[in-house]
What we know:
Strand content: 25-35%
Radius of gyration: 12 Å
Amino acid sequence: MSGAAYDDRVLYQGDPWVRVDTLPRLLAEGWRRTLSAGGVVSVVRTPFQWAMGSPVIEIETGGYMGDVGLYVPQVQLDEALALLGFDPQDGPGA
């Protein structure tokens, strides 16, 4: 665990985004693929930067693999939670 703390709600590119969960980078990238396949936009926040695309080269070369914040646009939160198999009323931490 990296110990990084991520806000529950942030403004990213001028829009409100909601943190789905904080989890290890590899797991977050897997969730991002599921979300993308379902039409939900997502972004990962590391302690150093925002990553809109999956930086495969960073993963392959051993870049930051600690805990990251996984965010989706607020307007897609319920859809994102459903795609990930969570009850939108409870979310992943329930």
